[in-house]
Amino acid sequence: MLKLDDRDIEILRVLADNGRITKAQLAERVGLSASPCWERLRRLEEEGIIEGYKATINLRKLGPNVTVFVVAELNDHTPASFQAFEASMQRFDEVTACWALGGGLDYLMQVVTTDIDAYQRLMDAMLEARIGLARYFTYIVTKPVKPFTLPPLRLIHGRDGAE
Fold first, then answer.
1. Which runs of consecutive H residues, i.e. helices, occur in 23-112?
2. Each residue of 76-97: pLDDT tens digit?
3. Half-sphere exposure of 68 (CA within 13 A, CB side)
4. Same domain membership, residue 83 and residue 24
């Protein structure tokens, strides 16, 4: 694990808030001169801590859509079944995120479609494709309450100020 200090964590926080910030503005915001800031940024990218830069898109502005969370259980629990299911998720563009779970059920999927009918057609296609899906539970998002935000980096990295 790469050792991060408070400045590294601040660089990550600033970039998570605004990935389009210029390198000069980033250096100013984190209290470094340009060259040391850029070197830290390069190191964070090379180490894979920064995986990429993305835009946040307001789907409501693009047209009708529905977000659904799906909890899925597989037919069987062999390594091959998990691998096959996970590989199949890459084929479904409507599945915008998928997480393997520990506990009673196997996966949590985030699905975005134009409407509930399109969602049901997707699930029917998954069942017909025989990807190992035994059953699933649907949870329709009625409104966003808290958007995706950066996790508490200081706590995750063990830098909660209790040093």
1. 23-30, 34-46, 79-89
2. 999 999 999 999 999 999 999 9
3. 23
4. no
